[in-house]
Amino acid sequence: MLVYFLLLSITAFVAYTIGSIGTLRVAGRYVFHRNLSRLGRGNLFISNFRRLFGVGGVIKLALTEIVKDLLPILLGSLLLGLKGQAEAGRAFAGFCVLMGRLWPLFNRFNGCHGCVALVLAGALVEPSVGGAAALVCAATIWFSRYFSLGAVLGAVIMIITSILVVENALSMRLLIACAALVIVRDLPALRRITRGEEERLSFQQDLTYKLDSKF
Protein backbone atom coordinates (compact mmCIF):
# COMPACT_ATOMS: atom_id res chain seq x y z
CA MET A 1 0.00 0.00 0.00
CA LEU A 2 2.84 2.38 0.87
CA VAL A 3 4.57 1.69 -2.46
CA TYR A 4 1.31 2.31 -4.35
CA PHE A 5 0.81 5.64 -2.55
CA LEU A 6 4.40 6.61 -3.30
CA LEU A 7 3.95 5.84 -7.01
CA LEU A 8 0.74 7.89 -7.07
CA SER A 9 2.47 10.79 -5.35
CA ILE A 10 5.40 10.81 -7.78
CA THR A 11 3.03 10.61 -10.75
CA ALA A 12 0.87 13.44 -9.42
CA PHE A 13 3.83 15.70 -8.65
CA VAL A 14 5.59 15.23 -11.97
CA ALA A 15 2.41 15.42 -14.07
CA TYR A 16 1.05 18.52 -12.35
CA THR A 17 4.43 20.27 -12.45
CA ILE A 18 4.95 19.62 -16.15
CA GLY A 19 1.35 20.59 -16.84
CA SER A 20 1.96 23.87 -15.00
CA ILE A 21 4.84 24.78 -17.32
CA GLY A 22 3.27 26.85 -20.08
CA THR A 23 3.62 25.51 -23.61
CA LEU A 24 4.23 29.05 -24.84
CA ARG A 25 7.23 29.34 -22.53
CA VAL A 26 8.70 26.05 -23.72
CA ALA A 27 7.96 26.63 -27.41
CA GLY A 28 9.04 30.27 -27.27
CA ARG A 29 12.41 29.43 -25.76
CA TYR A 30 13.33 26.21 -27.53
CA VAL A 31 11.36 26.18 -30.81
CA PHE A 32 10.47 29.71 -31.96
CA HIS A 33 13.04 31.69 -29.92
CA ARG A 34 10.56 34.50 -29.35
CA ASN A 35 8.36 35.68 -26.51
CA LEU A 36 5.08 34.17 -27.66
CA SER A 37 3.18 35.50 -24.66
CA ARG A 38 3.23 38.94 -26.31
CA LEU A 39 0.67 37.67 -28.82
CA GLY A 40 -2.08 37.72 -26.21
CA ARG A 41 -4.25 35.01 -24.68
CA GLY A 42 -7.05 32.68 -25.73
CA ASN A 43 -8.59 33.10 -29.15
CA LEU A 44 -6.65 36.31 -29.69
CA PHE A 45 -3.37 34.42 -29.29
CA ILE A 46 -4.39 31.64 -31.68
CA SER A 47 -5.46 34.12 -34.34
CA ASN A 48 -2.28 36.18 -33.98
CA PHE A 49 -0.05 33.11 -33.94
CA ARG A 50 -1.63 31.64 -37.08
CA ARG A 51 -1.19 34.91 -38.96
CA LEU A 52 2.44 35.29 -37.90
CA PHE A 53 3.78 31.72 -38.15
CA GLY A 54 1.37 30.08 -40.57
CA VAL A 55 0.23 26.46 -40.66
CA GLY A 56 3.79 25.17 -40.17
CA GLY A 57 4.11 27.15 -36.96
CA VAL A 58 0.77 25.85 -35.69
CA ILE A 59 1.97 22.29 -36.31
CA LYS A 60 5.23 22.94 -34.43
CA LEU A 61 3.35 24.44 -31.50
CA ALA A 62 0.89 21.53 -31.43
CA LEU A 63 3.73 18.99 -31.48
CA THR A 64 5.47 20.84 -28.63
CA GLU A 65 2.30 20.67 -26.56
CA ILE A 66 1.67 17.02 -27.41
CA VAL A 67 5.19 15.98 -26.39
CA LYS A 68 5.07 18.05 -23.19
CA ASP A 69 1.74 16.56 -22.08
CA LEU A 70 2.49 13.05 -23.34
CA LEU A 71 5.65 12.48 -21.31
CA PRO A 72 4.07 12.63 -17.81
CA ILE A 73 1.14 10.48 -18.98
CA LEU A 74 3.57 7.82 -20.16
CA LEU A 75 5.42 8.14 -16.86
CA GLY A 76 2.16 7.47 -15.01
CA SER A 77 1.64 4.39 -17.15
CA LEU A 78 5.14 3.17 -16.37
CA LEU A 79 5.00 3.77 -12.62
CA LEU A 80 1.48 2.50 -11.97
CA GLY A 81 2.19 -0.34 -14.36
CA LEU A 82 4.52 -1.69 -11.68
CA LYS A 83 1.38 -2.40 -9.68
CA GLY A 84 -0.60 -3.70 -12.65
CA GLN A 85 -2.51 -0.43 -13.13
CA ALA A 86 -0.92 0.99 -16.28
CA GLU A 87 -4.22 2.10 -17.82
CA ALA A 88 -5.39 3.81 -14.65
CA GLY A 89 -1.93 5.34 -14.35
CA ARG A 90 -2.32 7.00 -17.74
CA ALA A 91 -5.76 8.31 -16.80
CA PHE A 92 -4.54 9.57 -13.41
CA ALA A 93 -1.49 11.27 -14.93
CA GLY A 94 -3.73 12.86 -17.54
CA PHE A 95 -5.94 14.21 -14.77
CA CYS A 96 -2.92 15.71 -13.00
CA VAL A 97 -1.55 17.21 -16.23
CA LEU A 98 -4.94 18.83 -16.80
CA MET A 99 -4.91 20.25 -13.29
CA GLY A 100 -1.57 21.84 -14.13
CA ARG A 101 -2.77 23.11 -17.50
CA LEU A 102 -5.96 24.64 -16.13
CA TRP A 103 -4.68 25.85 -12.75
CA PRO A 104 -0.88 26.19 -13.15
CA LEU A 105 1.24 26.77 -10.10
CA PHE A 106 3.71 28.89 -12.08
CA ASN A 107 1.08 31.33 -13.37
CA ARG A 108 -0.88 32.08 -10.20
CA PHE A 109 -3.34 29.28 -11.03
CA ASN A 110 -4.52 31.20 -14.09
CA GLY A 111 -4.39 28.63 -16.87
CA CYS A 112 -5.76 28.09 -20.34
CA HIS A 113 -7.29 25.27 -22.34
CA GLY A 114 -6.49 21.60 -21.74
CA CYS A 115 -7.74 20.09 -25.00
CA VAL A 116 -4.49 18.34 -25.88
CA ALA A 117 -4.04 16.75 -22.47
CA LEU A 118 -7.71 15.75 -22.42
CA VAL A 119 -7.52 14.06 -25.83
CA LEU A 120 -4.21 12.38 -25.02
CA ALA A 121 -5.52 10.98 -21.73
CA GLY A 122 -8.60 9.63 -23.46
CA ALA A 123 -6.73 8.21 -26.44
CA LEU A 124 -4.13 6.43 -24.30
CA VAL A 125 -6.85 4.77 -22.22
CA GLU A 126 -9.20 3.99 -25.12
CA PRO A 127 -8.37 5.30 -28.63
CA SER A 128 -12.03 5.67 -29.60
CA VAL A 129 -12.65 7.95 -26.62
CA GLY A 130 -9.79 10.28 -27.45
CA GLY A 131 -10.61 10.15 -31.16
CA ALA A 132 -14.25 11.09 -30.64
CA ALA A 133 -13.31 13.95 -28.32
CA ALA A 134 -10.68 15.23 -30.76
CA LEU A 135 -13.08 15.07 -33.71
CA VAL A 136 -15.89 16.94 -31.94
CA CYS A 137 -13.47 19.48 -30.48
CA ALA A 138 -11.83 20.21 -33.84
CA ALA A 139 -15.12 20.37 -35.76
CA THR A 140 -16.70 22.72 -33.23
CA ILE A 141 -13.72 25.05 -33.22
CA TRP A 142 -13.63 25.08 -37.02
CA PHE A 143 -17.29 25.92 -37.50
CA SER A 144 -17.92 28.12 -34.46
CA ARG A 145 -14.48 29.80 -34.16
CA TYR A 146 -14.79 29.44 -30.38
CA PHE A 147 -11.98 27.41 -28.81
CA SER A 148 -13.68 27.11 -25.42
CA LEU A 149 -16.90 25.82 -26.97
CA GLY A 150 -14.91 23.12 -28.78
CA ALA A 151 -13.18 22.15 -25.55
CA VAL A 152 -16.46 21.84 -23.65
CA LEU A 153 -18.25 19.81 -26.34
CA GLY A 154 -15.19 17.58 -26.68
CA ALA A 155 -15.29 17.03 -22.92
CA VAL A 156 -19.01 16.18 -23.03
CA ILE A 157 -18.36 13.60 -25.73
CA MET A 158 -15.53 12.15 -23.65
CA ILE A 159 -17.89 11.66 -20.72
CA ILE A 160 -20.45 9.87 -22.89
CA THR A 161 -17.95 7.65 -24.71
CA SER A 162 -16.06 6.83 -21.50
CA ILE A 163 -19.27 5.55 -19.92
CA LEU A 164 -20.08 3.51 -23.02
CA VAL A 165 -16.74 1.91 -23.92
CA VAL A 166 -14.21 2.09 -21.06
CA GLU A 167 -14.42 -1.17 -19.13
CA ASN A 168 -12.11 -0.37 -16.23
CA ALA A 169 -14.24 1.49 -13.67
CA LEU A 170 -11.34 3.47 -12.21
CA SER A 171 -10.10 4.58 -15.61
CA MET A 172 -13.63 5.58 -16.61
CA ARG A 173 -14.09 7.72 -13.50
CA LEU A 174 -10.74 9.41 -14.03
CA LEU A 175 -11.56 10.26 -17.64
CA ILE A 176 -14.92 11.66 -16.57
CA ALA A 177 -13.11 13.72 -13.95
CA CYS A 178 -10.71 15.01 -16.63
CA ALA A 179 -13.63 16.08 -18.80
CA ALA A 180 -15.36 17.71 -15.83
CA LEU A 181 -12.26 19.80 -15.14
CA VAL A 182 -12.31 21.19 -18.69
CA ILE A 183 -16.03 21.99 -18.49
CA VAL A 184 -15.68 23.78 -15.15
CA ARG A 185 -12.66 25.75 -16.32
CA ASP A 186 -14.41 26.94 -19.49
CA LEU A 187 -17.74 27.94 -17.90
CA PRO A 188 -16.72 31.64 -17.74
CA ALA A 189 -15.86 31.54 -21.46
CA LEU A 190 -19.25 29.99 -22.24
CA ARG A 191 -20.96 32.82 -20.39
CA ARG A 192 -18.96 35.33 -22.44
CA ILE A 193 -20.02 33.54 -25.63
CA THR A 194 -23.70 33.79 -24.71
CA ARG A 195 -23.24 37.52 -24.07
CA GLY A 196 -21.33 38.00 -27.33
CA GLU A 197 -18.19 39.07 -25.48
CA GLU A 198 -15.83 36.21 -26.40
CA GLU A 199 -13.21 36.84 -29.06
CA ARG A 200 -13.67 34.61 -32.10
CA LEU A 201 -10.82 32.92 -33.89
CA SER A 202 -9.80 35.02 -36.87
CA PHE A 203 -7.04 34.62 -39.42
CA GLN A 204 -7.44 38.12 -40.84
CA GLN A 205 -6.19 40.12 -37.90
CA ASP A 206 -3.63 42.87 -38.45
CA LEU A 207 -0.29 41.99 -36.89
CA THR A 208 1.92 44.79 -38.13
CA TYR A 209 2.39 46.12 -34.62
CA LYS A 210 3.83 42.74 -33.58
CA LEU A 211 6.67 42.87 -36.08
CA ASP A 212 8.79 45.50 -34.39
CA SER A 213 12.20 44.86 -32.89
CA LYS A 214 10.81 44.32 -29.37
CA PHE A 215 9.02 41.12 -30.33
SSE blueprint and pairings:
Blueprint: H1 2-20, H2 23-32, H3 42-81, H4 86-102, H5 115-125, H6 127-144, H7 147-165, H8 169-194
Helix pairs in contact: 1-3, 1-4, 2-3, 3-4, 3-5, 4-5, 4-8, 5-6, 5-7, 5-8, 6-7, 7-8
Explain what this protein looks like in three dimensions:
Mean pLDDT is 84; it is low at 205-215. Helix 1 (2-20) runs parallel beside helix 4, helix 4 packs antiparallel against helix 5 (115-125) and helix 5 (115-125) runs antiparallel to helix 8 (169-194). It is built from eight helices and no strands. With 215 residues, it is mainly alpha-helical. It has one domain.
Number of beta strands: 0
Helical residues, percent: over 70%
Distance between the termini: 52 Å
The helix/strand class is: mainly alpha
Q: Which percent band covers the strand fraction? A: under 5%
H/E element order: HHHHHHHH
Overall form: globular
Largest beta-sheet details: none
Total helices: the number is 8
- Please mark out the parts with pLDDT under 50 across 5 or more consecutive residues, or reply none: 205-215
Compose a concise summary of this entry.
With 215 residues, the protein is mainly alpha-helical.
List the defining traits of the structure above.
215 residues; mainly alpha; 8 helices; 74% helix; globular; disordered C terminus
